[in-house]
Amino acid sequence: NYEQQTVQINGHIVLIKAYPVSIDVVGLKKLCSSEAVKEYEGKLRPLCGEQTIVRVDRAEPSKNIIRGFRAFDTLLERYPQFQGKVKFIAFLVPTRTHLKPYQRYMEEVTQLIEAINSKYRTEEWHPIDFFYENNYLQAIAGMRLCDVLLVNPVIDGMNLVAKEGPTVNERGGVLILSETVGAYEQLGQNALTVAPADLEGTTQALYTALTMPADERNKRITADKPFIY
């Protein structure tokens, strides 16, 4: 029964619901005040632009990393006022590196980053930096510094990055969220939502996020807090 979200089997009625998990908000905020995270912030800050887009993902096809970078490429081409000002910093975690499809995927990601950087690079600026390592504290520091957090997986059971980012962020960051992740049910109303295959929609979401007034940003963050906690 789609309307009631139930399944009847052997005389029993089973409710089919989403039960999103929470995050350790207190522990995460304590981590943000640690010397290690502050040190990473200091190292990352010179890489940031006037505005900074961040993503934090395992390096696997389901995370839709390539389409996110292609949307950023389209953004820079269509709206050249962002060139020299906006940076995209990706924190990619190695996973299943012994499998050839994952190796090839990461090669494609790296090649695309190099192509975009080559296309727009100036003496003082290049559009994308990325880290390929399992470094949670560094990723937390990056999410604290971002103006836009891009979470656009093809599909994801939950995706806690969508909750961790708004919790730690210090810049009124805007969440761009795929409609096919578990966190969407709680956070979708106040995020900029995208269909994961929609390159044009993702490009426009990036533009909207980067041009969103501060009061609108803060309103969205405040509205999300009850669902994060």
UniProtKB/TrEMBL annotation:
GO molecular function: alpha,alpha-trehalose-phosphate synthase (UDP-forming) activity; trehalose-phosphatase activity
Any one Gene Ontology cellular component term annotated for this protein: cytosol
One Pfam family named in its UniProt record: Glyco_transf_20
GO BP of this protein: trehalose biosynthetic process
Matching InterPro entries: Glyco_trans_20
UniProt-recorded name of the protein: Uncharacterized protein
